[in-house]
Amino acid sequence: MTIEPDELLTTTRSVRKRLDLTRPVPPELVRECLEIALQAPTGGNRQEWHWIVVTDPGLRKTIGDYYGRSWRRYYESGSSARGLFQDDPVRSAAQARVSDSATYLGDHMGEVPVLVIGCIKVGGGLPPGNQAGLWGSLLPAAWSYMLAARARGLGTAWTTLHLAYESEIATLLGIPGDVRQGVLLPTAYYTGETFKPASRQPLEEVLHADRW
């Protein structure tokens, strides 16, 4: 599967309803994606990331249960995508679709063949104040993983709602106390043909030259 860079960058979507829950994902394919992820930059070249690839059915179900519980609480709070842009019919319809697909993933996370959790070592704990420097040493690699997966016919989704139960999942997976989780990436083959660029705000509405 060959995808030109611009197409890869504009068609790597959060895949939820179209994840194939029945088709196994070869471990070597996940390893290939992670090898590419490790080429991403990190602050001071520390490379203090860690990656937990969860394929055990029992562990996936437990993580999925935590994720589903967190999703339902988030949805019921009214803060999910469905509650946004209610005064804009076009965006509101798109938000409803996003929310529906997120609900589906919340119900089926534990059935996804591979769950990849990106973590980072924090030493003495999370830094106070602005943490951009810390998470900036993990999140680019996670995005690289998603791009590599897309190029290999796999779908992923950027999720963080499991972090409401970070300590429980850390205990479940034996994650050390000085390692924090940053992202959960469900990974599976996807159904259907391909993906297209999403509708986005015009650049003119968000571009600021020299000053705001």
From TrEMBL:
Entry's Gene Ontology molecular function annotations: oxidoreductase activity
Keyword rRNA-binding (UniProt): no
Gene3D superfamilies with a match to the protein in the record: NADH Oxidase (3.40.109.10)
Key words, A-Z: Oxidoreductase
Domain Nitroreductase: 11-178
Pfam families according to UniProt: Nitroreductase
Residue ranges of coiled coil: none
Keyword Oxidoreductase among record annotations: yes
Family the UniProt entry places it in: Belongs to the nitroreductase family.
Name of this chain's protein: Nitroreductase
Source organism (scientific name): Nonomuraea solani
